[in-house]
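Backbone shape codes:
***
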Amino acid sequence: MAKDKSKDIGLVKEIQKVLLDDSDFLRSLVQDNLQKLLEAEFEHYLQAKPYERTESRRGYRNGRVTVPKKTLI
């Protein structure tokens, strides 16, 4: 059983190395998560989902435009 566990740990470390060394993968992962975080913050603040009309809505949003960002990752 101990041998199987050490093989699994070695495999996990190898996969992590491959994924983290790929800057495009890491960049897209960070970018996607930040976008989801910002969208969730907007929904919480506005008290409405995109395109949803409610009486309790606290403001408006103009949508979003995909603009390429330069990151140092």
Q: What stands out?
A: The first helix runs from residue 2 to 21. The mean pLDDT is 79.
